[in-house]
Design brief:
This protein has helices at 54-67, 85-96, 117-121, 126-129, 145-152, 156-159, 162-176, 189-202; strands at 9-12, 15-18, 39-40, 43-44, 72-75, 108-113, 135-139, 179-185, 205-209. Strands 1-2-5-6-7-8-9 form a 7-stranded mixed β-sheet, covered by helices on one side. It has a two-stranded antiparallel sheet with strand order 3-4. The longest helix has 15 residues, at 162-176. Helix 1 packs across helix 2 (85-96). It has one domain (9-209): Aldolase class I (TIM Barrel). The two termini are 24 Å apart. It is 36% helix and 18% strand. It is globular. It is built from 8 helices and 9 strands. It is of the alpha/beta class. Bound molecules: iron/sulfur cluster.
Length: 212
């Protein structure tokens, strides 16, 4: 048992990160949650099934900002935020509208995701983010479905349609949001070129992440 209190919000860089859930439809080979025992640089991200309400997140964001400001709010955590897509929207709505004062209304909000929100919610959800979330960073990691399945290890329900669904989500997000970035864990040049080509076709920028 980890005796450090679970962190619902935690700072990293200039951002405040929101840990909404530990549930996830994938088991990515590069995921650090097991290796790091649910710790992220001193924050215990094991929620022990106690998922916070949007009101609680807004309250903690306000308290944290009052101590020291931050530049953006990021849904991330150890888990897939889209497993609680409605809570993402509701929290973003509260914060964006000034309901987490002294957090400035309109502060940048980012969603870090594996991009499976459409399959999780069984609808096209990207348009619902418009006006609430400014940026989505999608951990796509592959240029084709076989490699995607190998790296992301999706649960059975997401295996067959997952890759295409993530592509659909990226394409739609790029259409309606100011910033859409597809990310990939560092790989060989050939795969990286194919990945950049795919992302460009979907309308997204790319970012290469180092494996931790
Ligand atoms: S999506 Fe994130 S939390 Fe889920 S397995 Fe992958 S790296 Fe881990």
């Amino acid at each position: 048992m980890n005796l450090i209190k679970p962190s619902i919000v935690y700072r990293y860089g200039n951002g405040l990160y929101v840990n909404l859930t530990n549930r996830c439809p994938t088991a990515c080979v590069f995921c650090i949650k097991t290796k790091w025992k649910m710790d992220y640089r001193g924050a215990n991200l094991n929620l022990e099934n106690l998922e916070p309400s949007p009101t609680e997140v807004a309250r903690l964001a306000a308290l944290t900002y009052a101590e020291k400001s931050f530049d953006e709010l990021v849904f991330c955590g150890y888990g897939e935020p889209a497993m609680r897509f409605d809570a993402v929207l509701e929290t973003a709505r509260m914060v964006k509208s000034g309901g987490a004062f002294p957090v400035p209304a309109g502060i940048k909000i980012r969603l870090n995701t594996n991009g499976l929100a459409n399959l999780i919610c069984e609808r096209n959800v990207a348009p619902e983010l418009k006006g609430l979330v400014d940026a989505v960073h999608i951990s796509l990691n592959a240029s084709e479905p076989g490699r995607w399945a190998e790296l992301m290890r999706p649960q059975a329900r997401y295996a067959e349609k997952g890759f295409e669904s993530v592509k659909d989500f990226i394409r739609e997000a790029a259409r309606v949001l100011p910033e859409t970035i597809a990310t990939i864990i560092d790989c060989d040049k050939q795969e990286l070129a194919a990945f950049e080509n795919l992302a460009a076709g979907l309308g997204a920028k790319t970012r290469v992440r180092a494996a931790l």
